[in-house]
Amino acid sequence: MSQSDAPNAPITYAAAGVDTAAGDRAVELMKASVAATMTPAVVGEVGGFAGMVDVSELRSYRRPLLATSTDGVGTKVAIAQALDIHDTIGQDLVGMVIDDIVVVGARPLLMTDYIACGKVIPQRIADIVRGVAQACAAVGTPLLGGETAEHPGLMGPDDYDVAGAATGVVEADRALGAQRVRPGDVLVALASSGLHSNGYSLVRRVVDQAGWSLDREVPEFGRTVGQELLEPTRLYTRVLLDLIAQIDPADVDPAELRIRALAHVTGGGLGANLARVLPAGTIAVVDRGTWVVPAVFDVVRRLGAVPWDDLESTLNLGVGMVAVVSPDAADAVLGGAEAAGVPAWVLGSVEDAADYAPRGRLIAGTKGVDGGGVDLLGTYRIA
Questions:
Q1: How crowded is residue 278: how many other Cβ atoms within 10 Å of its Cβ?
Q2: Which of 111, 119, 113, 112 is nearest to 81 (CA)?
Q3: What residue range is the signal peptide (predicted)?
Q4: Are strands 319-325 and 259-264 parallel, antiparallel or unpaired?
Q5: Residue 380 in contact with residue 365, Cβ under 8 Å?
Q6: Residues 300-324: b if buried by 16+ CB within 10 A, e if exposed
Q7: Are 227 and 168 part of one and the same domain?
Q8: Domain end call among 141, 174, 207
Q9: Residues 312 and 269 sit within 8 Å (Cβ to Cβ)
Q10: Which residues pair with 349 in a beta bridge?
Q11: Are residues 322 and 284 in the same domain?
Q12: Which residues, other chains included, contact 109 with Cβ-Cβ below 8 Å and sequence gap of 6+?
């Protein structure tokens, strides 16, 4: 290299856009929140290269299965960024990741998170992680590790994205799923808290094209657009694990579990996600008229002239989780959910496909699963 090719001044990592000191400050700000999630099973301190958890208790399992899930919160982060409110998006992440593990009946053992950003702003990163940590604490899961990556030149200074992963454990012969579902089972819906964390590309497009600002007051919401769109995802982990323990305690024959399957209603809507936990030869018959669709979904529909079929294939429409249960367990599930503060109702039933002629919108073969189908009947009731 000739002298003329040499830089005029030394180029440091900070000059290239990465501020390691800011990263260290962010870690200091978040340490207390993360430490509050630790359980007695956690080994070591915050800040190690890898988190460790003592799983000696798994020796008591006959055949422990590890369940794992990873996810993000999609373009909902754009709402958090626009409002400069970053301490709720973490609950969305925990809901998307850990509630997918609970669907198979697994108890979560640990969670990790990952934040990519254009510039580390310590308080912002600490707010995000604090939201993750508070949600982890609420569901009794240690936030065992994480990473914050600064990507100058790839992301703008105010841009960030979040992702997470979790691991849980379930006894093999007590795992929930399509293999347990049978005709005659009852579908119990557990209410969502709002949009949760799916379909925000559609929602944001509708709001943008309508020219609505995030600080616009909407009578149907009783608050602003931004407040409604940032409502955190409801967490179902504790209520579901409690219901499993109460309705199907350890001494129940695994072949006779009364909670058969759970479906987390995320991307794809109610029909696509419920179909994933049904065996071939069955159809879940869902009555759209059994609940009132919350206002936010109808406002999105009317504001963007969104067809109902598209809406129910994108958003949860008020149903965040579905429990497929034996008929004699339905009342206990309803009562347990309500006692935990989660509205619940009977959504429909499972039928033998050989004896059933679909009468509504039939959804099957979704998410790569060749299983049963879901027949969506009737008309939605609007708030």
A1: 26
A2: 119
A3: none
A4: antiparallel
A5: no
A6: bbeebebeeeebbbbbbbbbbbbbb
A7: no
A8: 174
A9: yes
A10: 186, 285
A11: yes
A12: 41, 53, 55, 141, 166, 167, 168, 169
Inside any domain, residue 206: yes
How wide is the angle at C-alpha 124 spanned by C-alphas 119 and 129, nearest 5°? 110
Hey, what amino acid is at 78? Answer: A
Could you tell me if 64 and 58 are in contact, meaning their C-beta atoms sit under 8 angstroms apart? yes
pLDDT digits (tens, 9 = 90+) for 352-362: 999 999 999 99
Beta bridge pairs of residue 66: 169
Whole-model pTM: value is 0.92
CA triplet 147, 199, 277: central angle to 5 degrees? 85
Question: Does 5 reside within a domain?
Answer: no
Higher-pLDDT residue of 41, 164: 164
The DSSP 8-state label assigned to residue 240 in this structure reads H
List b or e across 27-60, with b for residues whose CB sees 16 or more CB atoms inside 10 angstroms: bebbbebbeebbeeebeeebeeeebebeeeeeee
Local structure of 131: helix, strand or coil: helix
Instruction: Give CA separation, 355 vs 28, 281, 282, 350, 365, in Å.
Output: 62, 10, 9, 11, 20
Structure tokens that stand for 322 in this block: 């579905």
Q: What are the φ and ψ backbone dihedral angles of 148, each rounded to 5 degrees?
A: -115, 120
DSSP state of 159: -
| Whether residue 189 sits in one domain with residue 150 | no
**3-class DSSP assignment, residue 321:** strand
